[in-house]
Specification:
Order of helices and strands: HHHHHEHEHEHEHEEEEEHEHEEHHH
CATH class of the largest domain: Alpha Beta
CATH superfamily of the largest domain: Type I PLP-dependent aspartate aminotransferase-like (Major domain)
Strand content: 5-15%
Bound molecules: pyridoxal-5'-phosphate
Shape: globular
């Protein structure tokens, strides 16, 4: 097609869009409900009432300007919007650090049993013995898997678990007369919630540099610890956010303990270890578990999170209440407020996200010990497969095998002007959710890929093929092609910073 002809096509397309909207190929250009043209139409058309006295004594109904849209249009609007949501049910979701695995439908079936779905947290406990048994069993399973016997299920997310865990540590220090300990050691590669949690608890954060090797070293730890007198604890993710196992963690935990500090482990990456090793065995004192990551409960827009904490016997007296207690007569009950005097108290209304407890226990029981171990093994195998296939196309910042996620950067593409963002947007163009980008912060242009154990060879190969093609295009000088992506998505590149900083939360008539 010559330039003149292309211009005509573009012109005609614009005309089409102006007249009948940009809807094309079953891909709707969905307007805001308020922008429907039939502003003054009404689905129901009743005559106005005459001579009616207002019995409430309030103002008569005013025109509030709600969109007047017919039921089928409302329905279609929301159904179409729902289909624009990319989810783990629509394709691979290789978002590093997030463990976006398949949510088995068996979990959903169990959570919908009337005896679980239709109960109320204020029901007498004698009428919900089965639900309490589920929670008690989950407490036991998590204790077994982590080697940490004290379990509190109430935190509502990973970050909430961090808060619960660090408050437990703080409470222990205070009641043991160590309230002067004010410093928490955190590697510079940590998830942002770690330092945020420490600061919210009133602690001061001291960074441990890991940039050189991607791992904690004994030397760097010793330097950060100093004489350890002021150190309340450390927060470490293992495997860490670079997808690497912390090899010196046992020695580090020993030194920390000798200085009277506690080891908080961010358990977001537990999928790499579940069923294989118990975090207590490498020195962990407190750990949260993201049920919505490792234990497959719905994630992101799909459901509430759940972040139980597991603690050592020593710290169990201080953790939040309530826990579920099994009595000698085999009945179950919730611990009462104030019953455990050393507890830091409640952090959440009722008992946490019970529906997630049911799903997580179903997942654990349906996999069994061998199945859980295989989850970790397959997750690590899949990530290493991705790494082995892409290591010549992308820069690998840290040598050697990875755990359940692999870390690449855009260093080899930099000279061609192609960045991590362009590569992520190219995945969008090919219908794949991007990997985690620009995290961890210590690695420039980071791309963190976590395929999880539930992806097939076929879907992982497709991800690899698109990433290989992007690297090849960048090498061949087709940078502009990548920088324009996505070209087929309903929206191109958005100003995400502006969207986050200046959200439009109200609709105003034009
Ligand atoms: C996901 C994640 C968290 C926070 O968990 P939420 O459930 O999202 O609050 C904390 N740390 C790491 C490393 C994570 O990946």
């Amino acid at each position: 097609m010559n330039a003149e002809a292309m211009k005509k096509v573009a012109n005609d397309t614009q005309k089409h869009d102006d007249i009948i909207g940009a809807t094309r190929g079953l891909n709707y250009d969905e307007k805001c409900l308020f922008d429907y043209p039939a502003a003054d139409e009404s689905g129901v058309d009743l005559p106005s009432l005459q001579n009616i006295k207002l019995r409430t004594g309030h103002k008569a109904r005013e025109h509030v300007g709600l969109p007047q849209v017919k039921e089928p249009e409302v329905l279609r609007h929301f159904v179409r919007l729902s289909t624009k949501n990319y989810s783990i049910d629509s394709g691979i979701f290789p978002l590093g650090s997030c463990t976006m695995k398949h949510n088995p439908r068996l979990n959903e079936k169990a959570a919908r049993f009337a005896g679980f779905a239709h109960i109320h947290p204020l029901q007498p406990q004698s009428t919900v013995q089965g639900a309490l048994a589920v929670m008690h069993e989950l407490q036991n399973m998590l204790a077994e898997l982590t080697g940490l016997p004290g379990v509190c299920l109430t935190p509502a997310a990973g970050a909430h678990g961090e808060l619960a865990g660090l408050m437990t540590i703080k409470r222990a220090h205070e009641l043991k007369g160590n309230g002067h300990k004010k410093i928490v050691l955190i590697p510079d590669s940590a998830h942002g919630t770690n330092p945020a949690t420490a600061v919210m608890c009133g602690y001061e954060v001291r960074n441990i540099p890991t940039k050189e090797t991607g791992r904690l070293t004994l030397a760097a730890f010793k330097e950060a610890l100093g004489d350890g007198k002021d150190v309340a604890g450390m927060m470490v993710t293992n495997p860490n956010t670079c997808g690497l196992f912390e090899r010196e963690i046992v020695e580090i935990a020993d030194l920390l303990h000798k200085a009277g500090g506690y080891f908080y482990c961010d358990g977001a990456n537990f999928n790499a270890l579940v069923g294989k090793i118990r975090p207590a065995d490498f020195g962990v004192d407190v750990m949260h578990i993201n049920l919505h990551k490792t234990f497959s409960t719905p994630h992101g827009g799909g459901g509430p999170g759940s972040g139980p904490i597991c603690v050592t016997e020593e710290l169990a007296p201080y953790m939040p209440s309530p826990v579920v207690i099994k009595e000698n007569d085999e009945s179950y009950r919730l611990e009462e407020d104030g019953e455990r005097e050393t507890s830091l108290g409640r952090l959440k209304g009722f008992q946490g996200q019970f529906g997630m407890h049911v799903r997580a226990l179903t997942y654990i029981l349906s996999h069994g010990a061998d199945g859980l171990r295989q989850i970790a093994e397959d997750a690590v195998l899949n990530a290493n497969y991705v790494l082995s296939q892409l290591k010549n196309d992308y820069h690998v910042p840290f040598e050697g095998p990875c755990m359940h996620e692999c870390l690449l950067t855009d260093k080899l593409q930099k000279d061609s002007g192609v960045t991590t963002l362009d590569i992520a947007k190219t995945l969008v163009e090919y219908g794949i959710h991007p990997m985690t980008v620009y995290f961890p912060l210590v690695v420039q242009g980071a791309m963190l890929i976590e395929p999880t154990e539930t992806e097939s060879r076929e879907s992982i190969d497709r991800l690899i093929a698109v990433l290989k093609q992007a690297a090849a295009d960048s090498k061949a000088g087709y940078s502009e092609k990548l920088q324009k992506n996505p070209v087929s998505a309903p929206r191109r590149r958005l100003d995400e910073v502006k969207a986050a900083r200046e959200p439009k939360l109200r609709w105003k008539p034009n």
